[in-house]
């Protein structure tokens, strides 16, 4: 089932050039209606598998691969709260290179530093002192104390400061590395298991129905807007 075929419609007064009657109307899809996962499914860890998007895969080709139906691409998008495929789906290698050249202007600029990140630092006992991947400035340095003397109670009363500076404390991340990492992070997605798909289809159809109690109600799939021409507005 195609997602846009399930969208309900709104009856608008026609503004088309060939419309010459006050009552002429056109039907347009209500794109503000949007399906979502049920809370009980979304919170159920066992309802999903994790998947790494392969090079060149699109939502429709992945839906064909997983569900044997390319029209269920919307299930994959809703499962991962993707509302803008262009920005939230990983680019192919060719498209990513074109995007980077357009953004940074040249191959040379791709090798320039985008930012600096911390490196993992551990003490002599292999305890984590500083985790890696934190964004820092170019002059970042890190100092921590190592105990050298204790008293009989076990309390420490003397320390030696250890200064971590330069490439031992931070590493440069180029524009090329930054964009590739950001694109790769989009590759890990959740896949709703096949047995839950009928439930989300049913939920979609229920969400797309209009309420009879609405004054704009025409049918389950159509609501109407007021006619300003008729009211004289």
Q: Please, could you describe this protein's structure?
A:
By secondary structure, the protein is α+β, with helices and mostly antiparallel strands. The chain has helices at about 5, 40, 60-65, 75-80, 85-90, 95-105, 105-110, 175-185, 195-205, 230; strands spanning about 10-15, 25-30, 50, 115-120, 120, 130, 135, 140-150, 155-165, 170-175, 190, 215-220, 220-225. Strand 5 and strand 6 form a beta hairpin. It is elongated and about 90 Å long. The two termini are about 40 Å apart.
Task: Break the fold down into its secondary structure elements and pairings.
Layout: H1 3-6, E1 9-13, E2 25-29, H2 39-42, E3 48-52, H3 59-67, H4 73-79, H5 85-88, H6 93-104, H7 107-110, E4 113-118, E5 121-122, E6 128-130, E7 135-136, E8 142-150, E9 156-164, E10 170-174, H8 175-185, E11 188-192, H9 197-207, E12 217-219, E13 222-224, H10 228-231
Parallel strand pairs: 1-13
Antiparallel strand pairs: 1-2, 3-11, 4-7, 4-10, 5-6, 8-9, 12-13
Structural class, by secondary structure, is alpha+beta
Write down how many β-strands occur, each being a DSSP E stretch of 2 or more residues.
13
Strand content: 25-35%
Q: Quaternary status of these chains? A: single chain
Can you summarize the main beta sheet? 4 strands, mixed
Residue runs with pLDDT of under 50 for 5 or more positions: none
Average residue-wise pLDDT: 89
Coarse shape: elongated
C-alpha Rg (nearest Å) = 28 Å
- Cα separation of the termini: 41 Å
Number of helices in the DSSP assignment = 10
Residue share in helix: 25-40%
What is the topology, as strand order, of the major beta sheet? 2-1-13-12
Helix and strand sequence: HEEHEHHHHHEEEEEEEHEHEEH
Task: Write down the domain tally.
Answer: 2
């Amino acid at each position: 089932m195609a997602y846009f075929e399930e969208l309900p419609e709104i009856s608008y007064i026609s503004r088309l050039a060939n419309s010459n009657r006050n009552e002429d109307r056109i039907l347009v899809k209500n794109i503000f209606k949007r399906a979502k996962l049920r809370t009980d499914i979304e919170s159920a860890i066992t309802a999903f598998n994790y998947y790494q998007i392969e090079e060149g895969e699109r939502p429709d080709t992945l839906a064909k691969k997983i569900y044997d139906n390319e029209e269920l691409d919307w299930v994959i998008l809703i499962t991962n709260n993707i509302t803008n495929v262009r920005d939230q789906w990983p680019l192919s290698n060719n498209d990513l290179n074109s995007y980077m050249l357009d953004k940074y202007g040249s191959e040379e600029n791709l090798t320039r530093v985008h930012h600096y990140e911390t490196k993992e630092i551990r003490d002599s006992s292999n305890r984590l002192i500083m985790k890696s991947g934190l964004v820092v400035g170019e002059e970042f340095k890190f100092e921590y104390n190592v105990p050298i003397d204790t008293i009989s109670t076990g309390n420490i009363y003397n320390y030696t400061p250890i200064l971590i500076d330069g490439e031992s404390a931070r590493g440069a991340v180029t524009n090329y590395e930054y964009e590739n990492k950001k694109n790769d992070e989009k590759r890990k997605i959740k896949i709703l298991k096949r047995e839950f798909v009928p439930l989300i289809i049913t939920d979609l159809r229920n969400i797309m129905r209009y309420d009879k109690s609405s004054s704009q109600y025409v049918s389950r799939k159509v609501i109407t807007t007021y006619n300003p021409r008729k009211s004289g507005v």
